[in-house]
Amino acid sequence: MAKRVLIVEDEPNIVESLRFLLEREALDVAVQSDGNMAVESVRATLPDLVILDVMLPNRSGFDILRDLHEMPGTMPKVLVLTAKGQARDRFTAEEIGVDLFMTKPFSNKEIVSNILGLLA
Prior knowledge:
Elements: E1 4-8, H1 12-24, E2 28-32, H2 38-45, E3 49-52, H3 61-70, E4 77-82, H4 87-96, E5 100-103, H5 108-119
Parallel strand pairs: 1-2, 1-3, 3-4, 4-5
């Protein structure tokens, strides 16, 4: 059974790029672009990994990450992928409990390698 990845991202070009890269690795990919719906999407799709932007419409990725940690049941791995690469953003994500923090722009090879590592 293919591993499931939920991309929570509002930038269509990033979504298209990630979807292409991940489907090429035979991963099952779902997308959510609205911060308010992200946690519900996790409940609905039960992903193995969530790729989470910080700056989303209606809700911060940090708030979503906090909610995911409070959900009963199995917590998916979370990769925060953001243009907000300042040290305090990385610290905030790590303090909440992110599995990996990466900044945009990203290398295709590096992101695929990191995602496959998180899913292993």
